[in-house]
Write a structure and sequence with these properties.
Pfam families: AIRS, AIRS_C. Belongs to the AIR synthase family. Its main location: cytoplasm. GO terms for molecular function: ATP binding; phosphoribosylamine-glycine ligase activity; phosphoribosylformylglycinamidine cyclo-ligase activity. The protein is of the alpha+beta class and 360 residues long. The protein has 2 domains: 136 residues, 60s Ribosomal Protein L30, Chain: A; 177 residues, Phosphoribosyl-aminoimidazole Synthetase, Chain A, domain 2 (Alpha-Beta Complex), CATH 3.90.650. Helix content is 31%, strand content 24%. It contains 11 helices and 14 strands. The protein is globular. The N and C termini lie far apart (78 Å).
Length: 360
């Protein structure tokens, strides 16, 4: 018996292995018009190069420019998009996850790149994903300077996909925001989330889809729309709103409320000797949070350390800047309110806590 490996009939090719180069080229052509919409004057060249180019001489106006970078994905929310066949909103989530992290230190978003991994390239589908990313970049004020679409047959199913991105911003060194600026007596201002955003979907999917067996097409009265529409609500992008705050009034710190929940994320920007106290009674979480908790019998503390509970971004400002900050956010259409204050740490184990019961 021969020990040689059998040779398949016909020559092997990339296409026979499941990779369609022509479909990839078609996807690039379809996405070009959307990428153009994100262009900033500092961007050189167009889509299709090996690297995106950004003219760093634009940073000469800074005395000491600090570059801020972040990378993230959207998590298992992509599964909801896949099930519904809706691909043009998930990009908003990706930009929000990256650029709202960057703006926390006071940095202006400059540019972003994306990575889209698919089981099979469907050009229109990939273009729809990039459309959402481009629209998100416009909302964040940054350019989409490039990216990569990778086809992974055999590892992913034909309809499976994932997205990730990386971004860069810049902030003047003496305007860097963070824990060292926060003082006792500062006001904690909450900015409303648009819903679940892009965190906690493993819990949400487990509770609502797997255990309760709800269909994404189910009309949910308390939500006023289908479950799928609620779960695909794009993450709010706060970048330009936060920058507007820094230009109109004094801000000491921001906190982007993502995985880990409100208290844990806020604690990341609180000095060791201080403590943030937030009053639940100052807001009513949207109905989707109650739906998840009630349907899955999830305890409140578990919900709060997994989901944003209706707050997507926090601003910590001096007490005397409170009214100006609230007015700026109102002018920009951002629902916001005084959620708490900064106090002495005392014997508290954590840097932030929620007290009381939710309103309503």
């Amino acid at each position: 018996m021969s020990s040689e490996t059998p040779i398949a009939e016909g020559g092997a090719s990339y296409a026979s292995a499941g990779v369609d180069i022509e479909a990839g080229d078609r996807a690039v052509e379809l996405m070009k018009e959307w990428v153009k919409k994100t262009r900033r004057p500092e961007v050189l060249g167009g889509l299709g190069g090996f690297a995106g180019l950004f003219d760093a001489s634009a940073l000469k106006r800074y005395e000491r420019p600090l570059l801020a970078s972040a990378t993230d994905g959207v998590g298992t929310k992509v599964d909801v998009a896949r099930r519904l066949g809706v691909y043009d909103t998930i990009g908003h989530d990706l930009v929000a996850m990256v650029m709202d992290d960057i703006v926390v230190c006071g940095a202006e978003p400059l540019f972003m790149t994306d990575y889209i991994c698919v089981g099979k390239v469907h050009p229109e589908r990939v273009a729809a994903i990039v459309k959402g990313i481009a629209e998100g970049c416009v909302l964040a004020g940054c350019a989409l300077v490039g990216g990569e679409t990778a086809e992974h047959p055999g590892l992913l199913g034909e309809d499976d996909f994932d997205v990730a991105g990386a971004g860069t911003g810049v902030v003047e060194a003496d305007r860097l925001l963070g824990a060292d600026r926060i003082r006792k007596g500062d006001t904690v201002i909450a900015m409303a989330s648009s819903g679940l955003h892009s965190n906690g979907y493993s819990l949400v999917r487990h509770v609502l889809l797997d255990r309760a067996g709800l269909a994404l097409e189910t009309e949910v009265p308390e939500l006023g729309r289908t479950l799928g529409e609620e779960l695909l609500e794009p993450t709010r992008i706060y970048s330009l709103d936060c920058l507007a705050l820094t230009r109109t009034t004094e801000v000491h710190a921001f906190s982007h409320i993502t995985g880990g929940g409100l208290a844990a994320n806020l604690a990341r920007v609180i000095p060791d000797d201080l403590h943030a106290v937030l009053d639940r009674g100052t807001w009513t979480p949207a109905a989707v949070f109650d739906l998840v908790g009630r349907t899955g019998d999830v305890e409140r503390l578990e919900l709060e350390k997994t989901l944003n509970m209706g707050v997507g971004m926090i601003a910590v400002v001096p007490e005397e800047s409170t009214e100006a900050a609230l007015a700026t956010l109102a002018d920009r259409g951002v629902e916001s309110w005084i959620a708490g204050e900064i106090t002495d740490r005392g014997d508290k184990e954590t840097g932030a806590e929620l007290v009381g019961d939710y309103a309503g």
